[in-house]
Amino acid sequence: MFKDKLISIFLALIIVLKLVDLYIDYSEEIIFVHLIQELVLIVLATSLFVYLVIDIRVRSRSIQVLKRQIGAVSVENKEISEQLAKAKKDFSEAIQLEFDQWGLTSSEKVVGLLLLKGFSIGEIAALRNTSEKTIRHQASAVYRKSDCPGRYNLAAHFFETLN
Fold it and tell me: Which parts of the sequence belong to the HTH luxR-type domain (predicted)?
């Protein structure tokens, strides 16, 4: 944009200088063909100058529109992020409430949450620094207390409640 403005300023200066030159040539009664050539150059330079000025204004307006749109999208994105955070928090609280109603121990709650997140028995054992047998026992307790036959039914139980 700065380049365009600089070019426009130089073009305007050239137009002014050509007008002065045309006036001087006319006063000195230079041949008519030369005056026509100068006049054509002035008209072409003026046309180019007008085109550049209009183009700069159009692009400036477009930039302003884009800035407003970016601002609106940023606000919308922030609102959606806040809604998502709230939904995530509400979902987590609903899971914990259901775990409480099922009477899960704190260890079973952690294992149940990790199962819902898709961790394998081996991964949960590694995260919890315990044996896979212990995790299998806790997972079985979660399934028994939740009346869900397995991991997929447990996940489905919570996703069905979203509707």
Answer: 101-158
Q: What is the pLDDT of residues 113-143, one digit of tens each?
A: 999 999 999 999 999 999 999 999 999 999 9
Residue 21 structural domain: 1-85
Q: Name the DSSP class of 161.
A: T
Domain presence at residue 92: no
Between CA 71 and CA 58 the distance in angstroms is 20
Which one-letter DSSP state was computed for residue 66? Answer: H
The verdict on 79 and 132 lying in the same domain is no
Taking the alpha carbons at both ends of the chain, their separation in whole angstroms is: 52
Cα(133)–Cα(60) distance, integer angstroms: 67
Tell me what the mean pLDDT of segment 32-52 comes to.
89
What's the predicted TM-score (pTM) here?
0.58
